[in-house]
Structure formats: C-alpha cells, structure tokens
Amino acid sequence: MPSFIWCKTIQWADWSISLAYSILALCLTSLTYNNISILCKNRKMMERTGIFHHVCRIKYISPPQTAGGGSASFCHVLVHGQHQQIRTDRRRARAASCSRSNFSDVQSAVMAFLCRSAASLLKPYRAAPAVLSAARLYSSGGNYEYILVEKRGEKKNVGFIQLNRPKALNALCDGLMKEVGQALDAFEADGDVGAVVITGSEKAFAAGADIKEMQNRTFQECYGGNFLAHWNRVSTVKKPVIAAVNGFALGGGCEFAMMCDIIYAGEKAQFGQPEILLGTIPGAGGTQRLTRAVGKSLAMEMVLTGDRIGAQEAKQSGLVSKVYPVDQLVSEAVKCGEKIAANSKLVSAMAKEAVNAAFELTLAEGNRLEKRLFHATFATDDRKEGMTAFVEKRKASFQDN
Amino acid sequence: LFLFCVVFADNNSTSYIGSFKIGVNVDFCLHTGGNYEYILVEKRGEKKNVGFIQLNRPKALNALCDGLMKEVGQALDAFEADGDVGAVVITGSEKAFAAGADIKEMQNRTFQECYGGNFLAHWNRVSTVKKPVIAAVNGFALGGGCEFAMMCDIIYAGEKAQFGQPEILLGTIPGAGGTQRLTRAVGKSLAMEMVLTGDRIGAQEAKQSGLVSKVYPVDQLVSEAVKCGEKIAANSKLVSAMAKEAVNAAFELTLAEGNRLEKRLFHATFATDDRKEGMTAFVEKRKASFQDN
C-alpha cells in the first residue's frame, strides 16, 4: 500500500528535514519496501527544481553495502523503474553520484537523504525485523540473477549455492562471480552455516567462462582492470566448501571447482581445460591446481590438447575424492557438509588453513605451521570440550569458541 | 669379559670400551628387545640386517604416548648405530598399527604448556633417521598413528588397514605432519575430506591415492615388509642414505633446486668405493659386494 511522505518544504530547513525524517522512519519500519511516493507540497518550488515531474517511486531499497571496503555506502534504489545507485555517506550526499541519473542536485539530495535515513534505520541490522526479512531475502535466494541460494541440511547448517544460467550452461560471467562472492560473504557471516556446497545443474556445473564477455577485451583492459581478480573469492572462504560437479566442468568451471576444498563428482562429470582451443590459457588457477592434483603428465595433456577426463579418471588421479550417481550427488555433498558443520567452525578453519598451506610451504615449514596451529587449538574451549567428551565417552558439543 | 666388551664395541660404531658388564648387558638388551615398556625390538631377516620395532600397547590399541615415542627414538638410535642393520621395519598389532595419540595425556594441557614444552617436538624422530624405514600397517592407523606411518619412507598396508585423521572430531587438528604429508600424498580433495570430516579410507583406496605402495593379506604383511627391508639392506647403506635424502628433498625444494641437490649427491657417489664396486660388478656380470664406504 503506497504511503506518502510529504516534503513540507523544499527550503531544507532543519525542522522540515527532521519531520520528513521521522515520517520516513515511521513508514519504513511499518512497511517493508513498499512503494513510497514522495510528493512535495510546494508546487512552485517543485516546478523550479523539477521534482514535481519526478514522483519518486522508491520501489526497493537494498541493505547498505560498502563498495570495496571504503567508507562510501550505497543504496540500490529502483526509481522510475531505473536502477540507481546512490551514495548515502554524508560527505558526498550533496554531490550524490547517481549512475545514469538525470536528476538535479536537489533531487539527488532528496533521494540521498531518503537513502541515508533508510541506511541509518538498517544499521541495527540484526534488531529490526524489517531488516531481518531483507537479510533473509538476500541470503536465502532472493535477489540473485545468476544463482540460487539457500540453506540445506537437517539443521539448516549447510549453505547451498546453485549456479543458475541454464541457457549458457552456467558459463561464468563477471556478474555471476560477483553474486557468488556476495552469497559466500553472507554465509561467512552466518553463524548457523558450517560448510558450503556449490553445484550447477545436472547437465553442467559450469561450462566455462563467458566467451562473449571476453571476446573483445584488450591486454590493456585485462591488466588495467585486473580481469578475473575477484574470481578466486571461493578460495579465500574460511568455511569448508564442497563442489558437487554434475556434467561439464570445463575451463573456468573446472578452475572454479578446483578452488573449492572438496570435489564430489557425478558419474557423468567431465573435467577439462580447453582454453588452448580458444587460443588462450587457463587464467584462474587451472594450470597450478590441476598439476598439483593429477600430476604433470595428465595435466600437460589436458592443458595442451583440451581433452577432457571423466569422473572415474578424475577420482583415480586425485582430482575428486568421491563419485556418486547423478541423482544422489547433491544430497551426498550436503551430507558431507553436515558432517563438517557438526564440528567446531573455529577449528575447522584452522584445519583448512593447514591443509592449504601444504601448497605454499616446504614440508618442514608446513609442519611448523601445523604444529603452531595445533598448539593454538589448546587455547580453544572446543578442543577441551572435544577431548573431554572423548574421554567421557559422550558426544561433544562445540561452541565455535 | 673384557674381550667380550671389546668385540661388542667393534660391532658398533659407538665405543663401549671400558663399559662395565651391566652396561654391556644393557646395550645387548637394547638391541634384542629387552628393557622397553611400550615396544618390542629385535633384528629380523636371514642376515639379521633388518631392524624390527613392534609397538606394544595392546590395551590402548597402541595409542602413542610420550613414553612410547621416546622408546621408539631410542630403538632407532640403536639401529642407526648398528652396522649390521640396513633398514628398519615398524609395525603394530594385527588389529591396530597405532590408533592415535594418547588423549588422556593431552586432555588437560594448556596452550602455554604445549608451546613452552614444545609438545610433540621429538615425535618426528622417525623422519630424521638416515636408514630407510618401512611402516607395515595392519588395522587402524588413525590420527597420530597415521602421521607416524607417513613419517616413514615406505608404507605397506594389510588388506584391513584403515587410515584417517579424526582429530577434528576432538576439536583439534593434526599436529605431527598429518595435514602436510597427507595432502602431498593423496591430493587436496581427499585430504580436505579426511581432515575436515574425520572419515577413514581403506587399504585399497590408500593405494590408489598414493598413500601406500603395496597392499598384502593381513598375515603376510610383516614378512613382506621384512623382505623389502632385506632388499634394501643388501645395498650400500651409505648410498641408500643419499638416495633417501634426495627423495625427501623433493618436498622441500623447487624442482630446479631439487635437481641440483640430486646432481650434487649423484656426483658425490663417485667419491665412494661402493659406487665403483657396484658399477664394476655390473660390467663384470657378478654380484656386487658393498662395504658401506
């Protein structure tokens, strides 16, 4: 139901701002993301500024996100069906930079002001129910264009990301990788989630990177724009990630799977690095992780010929650890995730760090890191609880502390 | 008695001249299995040239405690010093190689005690031995037991062997090389799965993944391991130590530097009598007789 906020004056006197602020606060807390039409009473002023002609319909306000970790925060606002991105930090509100914006400074300031108020309301992130529903919407599958996100498992402790670009056989485009990064961020912050499962469709996990996106790039654009820089987000996640690969995992798809900690394959899975057939080479770790996994000869063969290997050969060569029938793969991966999520999240992160260090350090130094981490587990409550439970022959109850 | 002392001293590279009778007896016992609380020690093989250490804590499924690891270290020291022994075989019982570290020992430790007391420091003694060590794993090799087996140079598994790193289920992580050696052996996916879930793998999967090199029936495992030890002990001990050093360096150096170390060691073998004897025997189509020199 639309609610109206009356901007009593356009003279930006303090009292009017605070009145509008309070009215906005009232409306926003009671109605989550409904249409908010702003009509300014002072027609003359509106005509002067042009606001009258723009009945702002703020259709959706996203939770404020920081872009690039800086101090700026943005609201994504659908205005007149156009997706605007408005800075909400105070300093720049006046010169609110709306992408593709036709609005004057005043109008931008109005919208920035609304977004700021929305942002300040959304700050008590976990407290406000309106905000919680937004967060749930965001992290539980809503609002993604290229992926589906939910939580699975009996205790809903396994994050689940399904790549969802069926027409493109889940080809990895920049937008998809950004969304995967956002979903992983949400799962990292979620205290319920202990492990993450990533999968594609039955036909294809991810059949490569989006060639059309890359076709006309120049070296300068790639280097200057740091192409593929954020594509390794999944390799920096602290929580264990399981890739459930059904069908094709080729090129970027194979690299994406190899960035995960554990790979489960369906019986018809195919792994390959066919970049050479396009006149390029793997760019997201394919040559490194594949060689470490399957050995030099097979890696050279795959990278230089573009040939694929099936699930059984992938298991024998050490690339994947389990092969399951196509229809059981995802549930088995979720079961594995549940097993992992039952342990201490804190200690699992340390275990994962130690295993990954095997690829970065010599054996002696890796052993030293592992020993330091092992000693450090003795400073955790979970270690004491786990060992005590073992001695007392009961089930441990970990607190991630 | 003095002659006995002298003769005995000649057999060892360490000198026991002037040792008393009791000392000699102790030394003799150290070699032949007496005086150990947690392990059994002897020499096996036709020529008694394979050192044999059997973990012996049946009630605890051979759980590794500090005392056991110290005794293993002592036995290995003795075999290192023994000029007859060319290789060492370590095994457990048929039921368990070593079912883990002793949890009761660790339960109440604090971080301060661990770091300050350098907990687990001497547990890697077996990885610093110069002579080749073969682990004959029957039954469970879990946690510290799996790490202990992986410190050895060669692993032979019985058909019912089980390998695992279940430390995560106790709220800790492997602390004696498990995450490092397992990953290098079986690859990332399987290592992550084992370390994060605590799940075990059987002998066949261990062989396929590269963790063990042979699988034998349960009752033949130890004898096959001793046979392998005899094969190794028939070669030059000096050159075997160099070969082992080169293989271990593959995990410490880049390929180019590892190749350089290997080449330097290879060149160094030409300073040994054994190399000349071995190549000459080959050319003359006769059996080589190595002198470890």
UniProtKB/TrEMBL annotation, chain A:
<comment type="subunit">
    <text>Homohexamer; dimer of trimers.</text>
</comment>
<keyword id="KW-0443">Lipid metabolism</keyword>
<dbReference type="GO" id="GO:0004300">
    <property type="term" value="F:enoyl-CoA hydratase activity"/>
</dbReference>
<keyword id="KW-0413">Isomerase</keyword>
<dbReference type="InterPro" id="IPR018376">
    <property type="entry name" value="Enoyl-CoA_hyd/isom_CS"/>
</dbReference>
<keyword id="KW-0007">Acetylation</keyword>
<keyword id="KW-0276">Fatty acid metabolism</keyword>
<protein>
    <recommendedName>
        <fullName>Enoyl-CoA hydratase, mitochondrial</fullName>
        <ecNumber>4.2.1.17</ecNumber>
        <ecNumber>5.3.3.8</ecNumber>
    </recommendedName>
</protein>
<dbReference type="InterPro" id="IPR014748">
    <property type="entry name" value="Enoyl-CoA_hydra_C"/>
</dbReference>
<keyword id="KW-0472">Membrane</keyword>
<comment type="pathway">
    <text>Lipid metabolism; fatty acid beta-oxidation.</text>
</comment>
<feature type="transmembrane region" description="Helical">
    <location>
        <begin position="12"/>
        <end position="33"/>
    </location>
</feature>
<comment type="similarity">
    <text>Belongs to the enoyl-CoA hydratase/isomerase family.</text>
</comment>
<keyword id="KW-0496">Mitochondrion</keyword>
<keyword id="KW-0456">Lyase</keyword>
<dbReference type="GO" id="GO:0005759">
    <property type="term" value="C:mitochondrial matrix"/>
</dbReference>
<dbReference type="GO" id="GO:0006635">
    <property type="term" value="P:fatty acid beta-oxidation"/>
</dbReference>
<keyword id="KW-0809">Transit peptide</keyword>
<keyword id="KW-1133">Transmembrane helix</keyword>
<dbReference type="Pfam" id="PF00378">
    <property type="entry name" value="ECH_1"/>
</dbReference>
<keyword id="KW-0812">Transmembrane</keyword>
<dbReference type="InterPro" id="IPR029045">
    <property type="entry name" value="ClpP/crotonase-like_dom_sf"/>
</dbReference>
Automatic annotation (TrEMBL), chain B:
<dbReference type="GO" id="GO:0005759">
    <property type="term" value="C:mitochondrial matrix"/>
</dbReference>
<keyword id="KW-0809">Transit peptide</keyword>
<dbReference type="GO" id="GO:0006635">
    <property type="term" value="P:fatty acid beta-oxidation"/>
</dbReference>
<protein>
    <recommendedName>
        <fullName>Enoyl-CoA hydratase, mitochondrial</fullName>
        <ecNumber>4.2.1.17</ecNumber>
        <ecNumber>5.3.3.8</ecNumber>
    </recommendedName>
</protein>
<dbReference type="GO" id="GO:0004165">
    <property type="term" value="F:delta(3)-delta(2)-enoyl-CoA isomerase activity"/>
</dbReference>
<comment type="similarity">
    <text>Belongs to the enoyl-CoA hydratase/isomerase family.</text>
</comment>
<dbReference type="InterPro" id="IPR014748">
    <property type="entry name" value="Enoyl-CoA_hydra_C"/>
</dbReference>
<keyword id="KW-0276">Fatty acid metabolism</keyword>
<dbReference type="InterPro" id="IPR029045">
    <property type="entry name" value="ClpP/crotonase-like_dom_sf"/>
</dbReference>
<dbReference type="InterPro" id="IPR001753">
    <property type="entry name" value="Enoyl-CoA_hydra/iso"/>
</dbReference>
<dbReference type="InterPro" id="IPR018376">
    <property type="entry name" value="Enoyl-CoA_hyd/isom_CS"/>
</dbReference>
<dbReference type="GO" id="GO:0004300">
    <property type="term" value="F:enoyl-CoA hydratase activity"/>
</dbReference>
<keyword id="KW-0443">Lipid metabolism</keyword>
<dbReference type="Pfam" id="PF00378">
    <property type="entry name" value="ECH_1"/>
</dbReference>
<keyword id="KW-0413">Isomerase</keyword>
<keyword id="KW-0496">Mitochondrion</keyword>
<keyword id="KW-0007">Acetylation</keyword>
<comment type="pathway">
    <text>Lipid metabolism; fatty acid beta-oxidation.</text>
</comment>
<comment type="subunit">
    <text>Homohexamer; dimer of trimers.</text>
</comment>
<keyword id="KW-0456">Lyase</keyword>
